[in-house]
Design brief:
The protein is mainly alpha-helical. About 80% of the residues lie in helices and about 0% in strands. It folds into 2 domains: about 5-90, RNA polymerase sigma factor, region 2, helix turn helix motif (Rna Polymerase Sigma Factor, Chain: A), CATH 1.10.1740.10; about 100-195, Winged helix-like DNA-binding domain superfamily/Winged helix DNA-binding domain (Arc Repressor Mutant, subunit A, Orthogonal Bundle), CATH 1.10.10.10. It has helices at about 5-15, 20-40, 45-60, 70-90, 100-110, 115-130, 135-145, 150-160, 165-195.
Length: about 200
C-alpha cells in the first residue's frame, strides 16, 4: 500500500467509513502481528494484542490529527498494549520458564512456520546479545536460569547466595534487560514498516 492510499483510507476512517477501516486492518495486520510477535514471542498473544490495538485505534481515530502518521500511531498503541500484556503476565508469573519450553510448545502445536522460526531465533540471539551487555554477576544468573534451566534453589547453591538474593538479582537483571529489548523491538518496528 502506498502512503497516499494509506492516507486516503485513514481519512475515510475518520469520516466514519467502516469499509476503509476494514481495508486498513487487512493491509496493516500482517506487519503489525510480525512486530508484536517479535516483541511478545507468542503468535496468539501477538494476534490478540493486534486486535486490541486496532480496536483502540478505531475508537481514537477522530483524535488523530495527522493522518499521515497513522502507522507510527498504531505501532505506538500496539507497543503500549504489548507492554501492558507483559506486565500482566509478570504479575501472574512466567507462562514459560525456559527457551526450551517455548520451543516445545510451538512444535507441539505445529505452528512454527519458517518466517516465525527465523523471527524467534533472531529474538533469542538479540536477547543473548543484550544479556552480554549486562554486568557479569546478573548476566550469569539469567544464563543459568534460562539457558541451563536451574531452579531458584539450584541457582542459590551454584552461586552461593540466598533465595532472596537470587530473586533480587533476577529482578534486577530483568529490569536492566527490558530497555535493551525494547530498543531492539523498535528496530523491528522499522523493519516491519519497510516490509509493508
Amino acid at each position: 500500500m502506498t502512503p497516499e492510499e494509506e492516507m486516503k483510507l485513514v481519512t475515510g476512517c475518520q469520516s466514519g467509513s467502516e469499509e476503509a477501516f476494514c481495508d486498513l486492518v487487512r493491509f496493516m495486520a500482517p506487519p503489525l502481528i510480525r512486530f508484536l510477535y517479535a516483541f511478545l514471542n507468542d503468535i496468539d498473544a501477538a494476534e490478540e494484542v493486534a486486535q486490541l490495538s486496532f480496536l483502540r485505534a478505531h475508537r481514537g481515530m477522530a483524535r488523530l490529527r495527522e493522518p499521515r502518521r497513522f502507522r507510527a500511531w498504531l505501532w505506538r498503541i500496539a507497543r503500549y498494549a504489548a507492554l501492558d500484556r507483559i506486565r500482566q503476565e509478570n504479575r501472574r508469573g512466567p507462562k514459560h520458564d525456559s527457551f526450551n519450553e517455548i520451543g516445545e510448545s510451538w512444535a507441539d502445536e505445529n505452528l512454527v512456520l519458517p518466517e516465525e522460526e527465523l523471527v524467534r531465533m533472531d529474538m533469542i540471539e538479540t536477547t543473548r546479545k543484550a544479556i552480554d551487555q549486562l554486568p557479569p554477576e546478573i548476566a550469569k544468573v539469567l544464563r543459568l536460569r534460562y539457558e541451563k534451566e536451574l531452579t531458584y534453589r539450584e541457582l542459590a547453591e551454584e552461586l552461593g547466595l540466598t533465595l532472596f538474593q537470587v530473586k533480587a538479582r533476577l529482578a534486577r537483571a530483568r529490569n536492566e534487560l527490558r530497555p535493551k529489548l525494547l530498543k531492539a523491538a523498535s528496530g523491528w518496528e522499522q523493519f516491519c514498516d519497510e516490509q509493508s
